[in-house]
TrEMBL record, chain A:
Molecular function per GO: L-isoleucine transmembrane transporter activity; L-leucine transmembrane transporter activity; L-phenylalanine transmembrane transporter activity; L-valine transmembrane transporter activity
UniProt similarity note: Belongs to the binding-protein-dependent transport system permease family. LivHM subfamily.
GO BP annotations, alphabetical order: D-alanine transmembrane transport; L-alanine transport; L-isoleucine import across plasma membrane
Major localization class: membrane
Matching InterPro entries: ABC_transp_permease (IPR001851), BCAA_transport_permease (IPR052157)
Organism: Magnetospirillum aberrantis SpK
Protein's recorded name: Branched-chain amino acid ABC transporter permease LivH
Membrane topology: Multi-pass membrane protein
Taxonomic path: Bacteria, Pseudomonadati, Pseudomonadota, Alphaproteobacteria, Rhodospirillales
One protein family per Pfam: BPD_transp_2
UniProt keyword Transmembrane present: yes
Keywords of the record: Amino-acid transport, Cell inner membrane, Cell membrane, Membrane, Transmembrane, Transmembrane helix, Transport
From TrEMBL, chain B:
A GO MF label: ATP hydrolysis activity
Keyword Glycoprotein listed: no
ABC transporter domain sequence ranges: 9-265
Family annotation (Pfam families): ABC_tran, BCA_ABC_TP_C
Lineage, broadest ranks: Bacteria, Pseudomonadati, Pseudomonadota, Alphaproteobacteria, Rhodospirillales
Stated name of the protein: ATP-binding cassette domain-containing protein
Keyword Nucleotide-binding: yes
Keyword tags: Amino-acid transport, ATP-binding, Nucleotide-binding, Transport
Region (Disordered): 263-283
TrEMBL record, chain C:
Entry-linked InterPro entries: ABC_transp_permease (IPR001851), LivHM_N (IPR021807), LivM-like (IPR043428)
High-affinity branched-chain amino acid transport system permease LivHM N-terminal domain: residues covered: 12-104
Transmembrane segments: 16-36, 48-68, 93-110, 122-152, 164-188, 265-283, 316-335, 347-376, 388-405
A Pfam family the protein falls into: BPD_transp_2
GO molecular function: branched-chain amino acid transmembrane transporter activity
CDD domains per UniProt: TM_PBP1_LivM_like
PANTHER family according to UniProt: HIGH-AFFINITY BRANCHED-CHAIN AMINO ACID TRANSPORT SYSTEM PERMEASE (PTHR30482), HIGH-AFFINITY BRANCHED-CHAIN AMINO ACID TRANSPORT SYSTEM PERMEASE PROTEIN LIVM (PTHR30482:SF20)
Keyword Membrane in record: yes
One annotated Gene Ontology cellular component of this protein: plasma membrane
Bilayer topology annotation: Multi-pass membrane protein
Protein name: High-affinity branched-chain amino acid ABC transporter permease LivM
Main location per the UniProt record: membrane
Naturally occurring in which organism (per UniProt): Magnetospirillum aberrantis SpK
């Protein structure tokens, strides 16, 4: 029981991070119907930028952790969002309306470029960061096992919930969100009605990248090591989460992220850590077999 | 023909719901052999849904659809969509033309004869080895394709990309492709949509030709009343998923219930049928 | 594009300036600072001059581009279209010339061992590209896990030959069958998923296979892989310096002086033959009912169903056929390397093969060859540059797509005509 609770906590934390990345996939897919393969790399850039920003601010600012983290968070979101914007501008926008696979290949190319660019500019070795937020609360204690909830885990989950709430508000309540949803329904029609589609698409990439940046910062703090390769696996997992929840659906992305996080934590807790990715993918396949559009995706009625 | 021989297609109590909406509601009618049966009705009356049920793309929640071959009936609601073409031999066209756009006109017609060619080529193995059996089957398929190309006037365009044909030709090609499957029932979803009067007139000739020379039944959804009134032998009128009339074209156009369905519930009952026709054509 | 817009000097300068500013902002965190890990702790180093350089390069680049547009537009780079058109007329001639050149390549005066080695590498990718072309190019199924079947083929051969001692020529068809079997086993449940869902599931499958290879120690040797995989022989004649007892080597049999080159050249011809077999198969099957059904399915699945074609079996056949050729290529890879490990079968391989197919121009056989030469061949020559090689590789993928979104060669000729179809 204690062990289960601990894995649950770990899974939710992990799921929050996946969910933040998954939103980027699901939004982009919803609006221009492409798999933004480079999104995992955007998250990886976010992790690097956050590490650099944190180290600089704590050096200059005299080592205050709280200020360092807040500044790092803001700086990371801004610069990572800029990278997300640039990737769309360079590699995807010229290919709008091209054959369906062209943007996918371009995205894969972009992903390779960003990965190797980071490897060259920051070195291939893993970058360790000693724990920044220490301590936690003990929830339950038995003879063999202690269930603990670290402050960092609390912070991650709270920040994720806050971001998602803010984000949902933007999408459902603001003119920007309305334009975004209109473009998602029918890009041509939205353009005819005066929506600046280019700007909406750009904004989508910017928001997605900013959320991925937060995930990058969280991972840097949570695991304490990053390298140029982390984007690949996290990207695949987050995309899996988006598909699991129903691609194009924002609550779906959050739910999918949470589920993938839980599956991974519980599977590695009870079965084998080596096969945790296999478990996540197998469950994806199972879900898709019974609900071909994911858990919260709108079932498609074939238009004939 | 004996009196006891059932009609080609019998539709009984078919109901198709989407959520709470009854797209087709307890509908029964039949389509005879060697006749053109037209299904008409205002927009949203459930015509295309009915077609999708008959051709297996939707599965109705209630009802029975029997297709009577010479060797007994086939129940359409029990077959997968692709089996409806291959086993029940019902072919169809689509409201928004669905051709294999980047393949040639001729290839479109050859793909339609996939079943025969697959059997002849022993799932392509014989073809891979270049056996004579396959060559013979391919020659036969080409003959049939040539016949239909000639019928629809596309013989000179056999090697053109199907997607590059003008609209009217694409419509005719789709009919030719459906006929290449050698059906007993051909379902046409608005074949005259988007055609100019001359093309529409040619279409009438093509469809009556199919009926008279090939002896198959035609089921037709159409908005163009000149087509419906000109060639159909029997007309079924739908409104809100229900059948409101069923009769010969002459009688249907005078049916007050039909006029009401097209013009609304107001006191237009004594409007002359010509007006009803014009209103319909505008919609 | 923007060529029609009139561009003023002022506009060109402003645009380039903005571009430079953006580049500076992008470069600031990633190039301007560098994470340094010393023994004590992680710290940050500065190299802000790099940011300046990045900004200058982008500024100059954009300015040059804008000026080019101002002065009569970009040079017309429709190379591919011209190539396509010309290939249309002389396709047969060109293909035969290519095959001829490939056949004599090892004996040309400038050929050496490393060149033949590189050509072998390119041919493996050509063959994989042709195999995937059946799935993606003809049947229109997006497969992001093609490498899984390549891996199945490689491990099948490695295990069969090291366990039972069976020869390459016995194992080759078996490996192909195994891979095809995997294709069916995976395809059966997932092939009714549409487009992008299929993509993620195939990607997942590729990863699953790799994880299993990495962790099933007893069977696959884990991360260490399998070594000592037997080399192929020519009708039982090994390519060795000294024959095993009671046998003869290739060199002895033909009265040649032993040379390591013999095996390299032999392997080259084996893969050339396998690749040509794949090509021949594809060319033939395109003219058969199954092949046409694949293409019809790519064009419109609903229309296929209305004509009585069963999409599931058609998709399965395409999936299995593609997998089979990947299996052949995999067992060749295993026998050539003599050693395999999960590292050779990562997602990047799938991405490269897919890129070859798409860049080549979906469905075009010659396009695959060109794309493989471009993507695999060229970087092989720049191996010394290591990391920059992959950077350039990714960059090339983006640029070629931007330049020709429908691939290098994208014309298609009908597979049958009223004249008789042959």
């Amino acid at each position: 029981m204690e062990y289960f609770l601990q894995q649950l906590i770990n899974g939710i934390t992990l799921g929050a991070i996946y969910g933040l990345i998954a939103i980027g996939y699901t939004m982009v897919y919803g609006i221009i119907g492409m798999i933004n393969f480079a999104h995992g790399e955007i998250y990886m850039l976010g992790a690097f930028i956050s590490l650099i920003a944190y180290l600089i601010t704590t050096t200059i600012g005299g080592g205050s952790v709280a200020i360092g983290l807040l500044v790092a968070l803001a700086v990371t979101m801004v610069f990572t969002a800029l990278w997300g914007w640039a990737v769309e501008r360079i590699a995807y926008r010229p290919l709008r309306g091209a054959p369906k696979l062209a943007p996918l290949i371009s995205a894969i190319g972009m992903s390779i470029v960003l990965q190797n660019f980071t490897q060259i500019s920051q070195g291939a070795r893993v970058k360790p960061l000693p724990p920044v937020i220490k301590g936690g609360v003990t929830l339950m204690q038995s003879e063999h096992f202690t269930v603990s909830l670290s402050y960092l885990q609390i912070a991650i989950v709270l920040l994720t919930v806050a971001l998602m709430a803010a984000f949902t508000w933007v999408i459902t309540r603001t003119p920007l969100g309305r334009a975004q949803r209109a473009t998602e329904q029918d890009m041509k029609m939205a353009a005819l009605l005066g929506v600046n589609v280019d700007r909406v698409v750009s904004t989508t990439f910017v928001i997605g990248a900013a959320l991925a940046a937060v995930a990058g910062l969280m991972v840097t703090l949570y695991y304490g090591v990053i390298d140029f390769y982390i984007g690949f696996l996290a990207g695949i997992k987050a995309f899996t989460a988006a598909v699991l929840g129903g691609i194009g659906s924002l609550p779906g992305a959050m739910l999918g992220g949470l589920l993938i996080g839980l599956i991974e934590a519980l599977w590695s807790g009870y079965f084998s850590i080596e096969y945790k990715d296999v478990a996540a993918f197998s469950i994806l396949v199972l879900v898709l077999l019974f609900r071909p559009t994911g858990l919260l995706g709108r079932p498609e009625v074939e238009k004939i | 023909m004996t009196a006891t021989r059932p009609p080609l297609l019998e539709v009984e109590h078919v109901t198709m719901r989407f959520g709470g909406l009854f797209a087709v509601n307890d509908l029964s009618f039949s389509a005879a052999r060697k006749q053109i049966t037209a299904v008409i009705g205002p927009n949203g009356a459930g015509k295309t849904t009915l077609f999708n049920c008959i051709t297996g793309f939707y599965k109705p929640q209630v009802g029975r659809m029997a297709l009577h071959h010479d060797d007994g009936p086939v129940l359409l609601e029990r077959l997968d969509d692709h089996r409806i073409a291959s086993r029940a031999r019902v072919a169809r066209t689509f409201q928004n033309i669905r051709l294999f756009a980047r393949m040639s006109v001729l290839e479109n017609l050859i793909v339609a004869q996939h079943q025969d060619l697959m059997k002849a080529s022993a799932f392509s193995l014989a073809g891979l080895l270049g056996l004579a059996r396959y060559h013979k089957a391919e020659k036969k398929a080409l003959e049939r394709a040539r016949y239909w190309l000639d019928k629809v006037g596309l013989l000179d365009h056999a090697d053109d990309e199907a997607g590059s044909l003008p609209y009217g030709s694409q419509r005719r090609l789709e009919i030719a492709r459906a006929m290449c499957t050698d059906p007993v029932l051909l379902c046409l979803d608005e074949p005259a949509a988007g055609l100019n009067p001359r093309e529409s007139h040619e279409l009438n000739g093509l469809l009556t030709g199919i009926r008279d020379e090939h002896g198959i039944g035609l089921l037709l959804i159409e908005h163009d009343m000149s087509v419906v009134m000109g060639i159909s032998d029997w007309v079924v009128v739908l409104d809100y998923g229900r059948k409101i009339a069923e009769d010969t074209p002459e009688r249907v156009r005078r049916d007050p219930a039909v006029i009401r369905a097209y013009l609304g519930e107001e006191e237009n009952e004594d409007l002359p049928p010509e007006v009803a026709r014009d209103v319909e054509e505008d919609s | 594009m923007a060529a029609t817009r009139s561009i003023t000097w002022r506009g060109a300068l402003t645009d380039a300036f903005v571009g430079g500013l953006v580049a500076a902002a992008l470069a600031l965190p990633m190039l301007g600072f560098r994470l340094v890990d010393s023994a004590l702790a992680l710290s940050v180093g500065f190299r802000l001059d790099w940011v300046l350089w990045a900004a200058l390069v982008v500024f100059a680049g954009r300015l040059a581009l804008n000026l080019l547009r101002m002065t009569g537009g970009l040079p017309d780079l429709r190379l591919g279209e011209r190539l396509s058109a010309r290939m249309g007329n002389t396709r047969h001639w060109a293909s035969w010339a290519m095959i001829g050149f490939a056949t004599v390549l090892p004996f040309l005066p400038f050929s050496d061992r490393s060149l033949v080695d590189k050509a072998t590498m390119v041919l493996i990718y050509v063959m994989l590209g042709w195999g995937l072309n059946i799935v993606v190019g003809l049947a229109g199924l997006l497969d992001l896990g093609f490498v899984a079947f390549y891996a199945v083929g490689a491990y099948s051969y490695a295990l069969l030959s090291t366990t039972f001692g069976w020869s390459f020529w016995v194992c080759l068809p078996l490996a192909g069958l195994f891979a095809a079997g995997f294709g069916v086993a995976l395809g059966f449940p997932v092939l009714r998923l549409r487009g992008d869902y299929l993509a993620i599931v195939t990607l997942g499958f590729g990863e699953i296979i790799r994880v299993i290879l990495q962790n099933w120690q007893d069977l696959t040797g884990g991360p260490a892989g399998i070594s000592g995989i037997p080399r192929p022989t020519l009708f039982g004649l090994p390519f060795l310096a000294r024959a095993p007892e009671g046998g003869q080597t290739f060199a002895e049999f033909f009265g040649l002086k032993f040379s390591g080159d013999h095996r390299v050249i032999f392997l080259y011809f084996v893969i050339l033959m396998l690749a040509l077999l794949t090509n021949l198969f594809t060319l033939r099957i395109r003219r058969l009912p199954v092949g046409r059904a694949w293409e019809a399915l790519r064009e419109d699945e609903i229309a296929c169903r209305s004509l009585g074609l069963n999409p599931t079996t058609i998709k399965l056949s395409a999936f299995a056929t593609g997998a089979m050729f990947a299996g052949f290529a995999g067992s060749f890879f295993a026998t050539r390397q003599g050693f395999i490990s999960p590292e050779s079968f990562t997602f990047i391989e799938s991405a490269v093969i897919l890129a070859i197919v798409v860049l080549g121009g979906m469905g075009s056989q010659v396009g695959v060859v060109l794309a493989a030469l471009l993507l695999v061949g060229l970087p092989e020559w720049f191996r010394e540059l290591q990391q920059y090689r992959m950077l350039a590789f990714g960059g090339a993928m983006v640029l070629i797509m931007l330049w020709r979104p429908s691939g290098l060669l994208s014309s298609r000729s009908p597979t049958i005509s009223l004249g008789g179809g042959k």
